[in-house]
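Title: Prediction job returns without error message
Component: structure pipeline
Severity: low
Priority: P3
Assignee: unassigned

Description:
Job completed but the reporter wants confirmation the result is attached to the right record. Sequence as submitted:
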Amino acid sequence: MASLDVLIVGLGSTHGLRAAEDELAGSLLRAGADAMLVRAERPREVRTLALTDLVWARAARRAAVEALADTSPRAIIYSTTTAALLWPQPGAIRFDAAAAGNRPGRHGVWQRPVERRRLAQAPLLIPQDAGALEEAGSPSTPSIVVPIPVEPSGPVDGPRDIAALTYATNPYKKGLDRILAAWDLAREPDEELVIAGLRGPDRDGITYAGTLDHDAYRALLRRTRVYVTAPRREDYGIAQLEALADGARVVTTPAPGPYAALPLLQAGLGWVSDPAPAPLSTALRSALDDPTPDATYADHALSALAPFRRTTVDTTIAESLLPRLLDDH
C-alpha cells in the first residue's frame, strides 16, 4: 500500500468547487507535501436537496474507500461537509458553508444533525472564511481559515465595452429578478447587461450568454465595467472576488451566509445597496458613472485582495495548515 501525506476527497459538484479543490491540491504540492486529489463520480439527478446531498455523500464515500484501499495517507481532507457526511474514516473538513446555514427546514432534515457530529469528530476544520465557522455554530474543533486563492485572469487594461455583467446560474438565489428591475431603471440607451450562466430571451439592453467555460467567463469580466449581484444568500462570493481581480467594479446587496467578499465591498471597494429596485439602480448608476480611472480602480482592488492572493494562501498552507495536518498524525 502506497504511503501518502494528504488525501483530498473532493466533491467536485460544481466548476467553482473543482477549481477550489485543484487550488488546494496545488498549494499542498508546492508546500512539499505528497498530496493526491480524488473526486466523487457525479451521481444521478434526484428531486430534492436532501436526496441530492445523500447521493453526493455516497459518491464521496465510494471515492474515499477506493483511494484508501490503495493508499495510506497521514491525513485526509474532505472538501465540503457533504463529502464528510458518510466518511469511511475521520479527516479534516474544508467548507465554504455549512448545512446549518444553507439547508434550512426539510432541505437539511438529515444533513444538519450528521454534520454537527462530523464537525465535532473532525481533527481539524478548514473553513474558507471565518463566517462559515460562525454559521456552523462555532464548533470547538480546532480550525484554520484558508481562503480560495483569486488571481487576475489576464491583462485588465483593455476596453470596458460591457456596461454590466451578472452570473445567474441559480436565478432566485442570485437575485436576478432584483437585478433586472434595477437595470431597467438604471441603464442608458446604449448600455447592455450580460447575464452569464443562463439562457433566456434577449431584449433591448439585455443579453443572455448561457453557460461559459471559466476562461471565457473571465474574459467577459475583463471587458466589464460593473459586476452586479443581489443575492438572497451568498455562501462565499467567489464571483465577486474574481470580478475585483479582473478590475470590474462590484455592486451588491448584503446577504445572509459567510459572504467573504462583503467586508471588502462594504469597506469602500464596492457599492453596497438595499435590494429594492430604486436604491439598487442608484448604486448601479453610481458605479457605472464612477470617475475613477479603470487602471486605478483595478490596482486598488488587487491591493485589497492581498489576503486572497495565491502567495498569501500558499504561505498559510505551508506554515500553518500542512504542519497541523501532519502533526496530528
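Comment from assignee: result matches the submitted record. The longest helix spans residues 49-70.
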